[in-house]
Amino acid sequence: MSRPPREIREPHEVREARELLARTPELLDLWLVGLSPGWLSADEGEGTFDPVDVVAHLVDGEQTDWIPRMEIILEYGEAKPFEPFDREAFRTRYDGVPLETLLPRFSSLRRENLERLAEFRLEPRDLTRTGMHPELGRVTLAQLLATWVTHDLTHVAQIARVMAKRNAGAVGPWRAYLGVLADRTR
After folding, report:
1. What tens digit of pLDDT does each residue of 112-165 get?
2. DSSP code of 33?
3. Number of other CB atoms surrounding residue 122 within 10 Å
4. Looking at residue 171, which CATH number applies to its domain?
5. What percent of the chain has pLDDT over 70?
6. Domain that holds residue 103
7. Is there a contact between 153 and 147 (Cβ–Cβ < 8 Å)?
């Protein structure tokens, strides 16, 4: 008598990553759409990101970074280094594209990428597989996945920070209690 195939349980790292990654597009949509231009253009100076830049950067990453690098790890391992990711490429690719166009694009790409992630049917041993980052050297698939999640959280925090700093001069003495106003600029 043959046994039924063993069900592969998704590693908790993958499940938890998907939980958070799936929420980012909706969070940004609810948070940013309809805000006045002053909020959407808040930044920390020359060469920094405003909220619309962050969304454009996230779109660019969905197209060129996370899943393509996972595919390289799963197919080639360290034999094929990752393509370098240009953190500023969004500035030319999405110059002048409004938030109301960028957010649905981000949502669609993220949904497709999470479907692709599920299609990999990753097992715990897959998370230890390695690839070659052009600057950082050897990285694991688990590290790449954790970085994708942390990248989202970094940019959500960045949006909150630049929007809060818009009021830095208006809060008066309460500034002493508002740590976000003293936060770093990158």
Report:
1. 999 999 999 999 999 999 999 999 999 999 999 999 999 999 999 999 999 999
2. T
3. 21
4. 1.20.120.450
5. 94
6. 12-182
7. no
